[in-house]
Amino acid sequence: MTLKKIKILDIFLIFGFCYLVHYLYMWLPNTLFSIFFPVNQSLWEHMKMLFTSILIVSFIDYIIFKKWHITNTNFSTNAFLSSSLSVPIFLFLHFVFDKQLGYHMIINIIILIFVIILSQIISYYVLQNKFLKHLGYISLISIVVIYIVLGLLTYYPPKNDVFYDKENNKYGINQYII
Question: Which one of 33, 102, 104, 127 has the lowest number of neighbouring Cβ atoms within 10 Å?
Fold first, then answer.
């Protein structure tokens, strides 16, 4: 199996994991899951869904690469860049379309699919780049730092529209508006 075929398959896997990850905290609420999975319907919590899904599939790729002896020197950098760049790209596109057309779930799903495809294009090129192999440890540390920030913002969200769950009238985890 070629890297290109794996990346095409990854697009479908990430989208599937986004669906699964979206509900994991609701099904199994606990502190650990609150860091990795969305705890409410705010835009920010959905960025955790995207970030985590890409990382899960990146880890699956690592296993596939080992099994099929696909040379890979940029696994950590790939996981970091493809997942972390997807968040600001999604947020930018969301705000552009939301401002022009208003909120529509179907538009957000189309944006999600586009960002997933773009993340896998980024992943494809990062995995082929021989000059990024020295960024592995920095990338792993950065992923840990991002999850620390995600966890803190879940429990101590700023009072901002990005963190506001309109469905449940709350911010973060159990911070209801009175």
Answer: 102
159-178 residue pLDDT tens: 988 999 988 888 888 755 55
Phi and psi at residue 173, to the nearest 5°? -105, 110
What global pTM score does this model have? Answer: 0.91
Is there a contact between 65 and 72 (Cβ–Cβ < 8 Å)?
yes
Nearest to 22 by CA among 5, 1, 47, 55: 47
What domain range is 50 assigned to? 3-176
Q: What is the pLDDT of residue 33?
A: 92
Strands (E), the chain: 164-165, 170-171, 175-176
Instruction: Give the total number of structural domains in the chain.
Output: 1
104 backbone dihedrals φ, ψ, rounded to 5° = -140, 125
Residue 175, strand partner residues: 171
